[in-house]
Amino acid sequence: MSNTTVVIIVAVIVVVLGVIAFLIIRRQRYKRALKSRGWWFDSSPALETVLDHQAPPFGLGFERKVDEGVAGKTRAGIPFRVFEYTCSGGGPKFDQRLASLQLPLALPDLFVSSSGVRSGVRLPAVDIDARLQVRAADPGYARAALTSATLNAIATFGQAGYPVDLSIDGQQLVAVGAPKQPDELEAYLEALAPVVQTIDPERLSSYAATPRPPGFAFYDRPDWVYVGRDDSLITAYGLTQVGFGHSTEKLIRATNDGLPLDAFVHRWKTQRTETYTDSDGNTRTRTVTEQHSETVCVVNMPFAFPLISVGGGWGGERVRFESEEFNDRFKIKTSSPKFTYDVIHPRTM
Prior knowledge:
The structure is a single chain. The protein has 349 residues and is α+β, with helices and mostly antiparallel strands. The chain folds into 3 domains: 175 residues, no CATH class; 80 residues, no CATH class; 45 residues, no CATH class. Helix content is 25%, strand content 35%. A hairpin with a 5-residue loop joins β3 and β4. α3 packs antiparallel against α4. It starts with a helix and ends in a 6-residue tail after the last helix.
């Protein structure tokens, strides 16, 4: 090894160690700055610590993560939490830093923004202030909550250069776009605190909501329960058992207004042998593993009726209808042709 190579390797090691040292020192300074304010820091908080939030961006998607948690109180004594929150899979993607300040009482969902509607929100618009977009299920509640004092506090917050994307989520005021650096975060929280201070619990007592129990809930779907996995459903619902490695995931179970529902993803694998020619011109074989999945939704009926399969490969005999176009597009198999003709009539087609 030449002297030049040794010098390069040593230089690279020194640079790497320097970067690592810099990052460690910066991290320690960050923690000290938070601690000096009486705040608490958790580099890897558990998802359970924020599951009392259930309005968008919460309650959306199957993949949910929380990171870089900071907690404490504002100068006025309002408890807060700040954290990075991400969600994806089965809903709009979200990845931003949030601030959550405790309100004096739990209230229905309310969304306020200066531009655009937060993804996942399906509440109607309420006309209150031309500068803001307001969404709530009850216009009377929205107007009672957004008094002139509250609107002025929100305007002052926005005029300080902070994005106005706020929501009431149970007993929390949630704001999107919180900064990370301690000095900036402190200024941000102190600008946001007056919004909480204008929320009058006596004025809003008639709108008080029952706090929702923390959990992996789904927004606007109070009867949905996230189970995750139950492989017994593969046999119970007669799904294909071809191949191997069968499993279920993302299982949601719901009462569904008296028609119990299971919705989940079924995954399995199959293998096949294929022939190929290697670089030397020799013929060889190899085993290829293929991944398969299907999304399944089962509604349990209050009574039993004969099998009808539309487009599926399940048992029974195939039946045809007068519409050849329909026959070409859909394969119908059944254990009772007469019943099938009664069910799949022209309007059903």
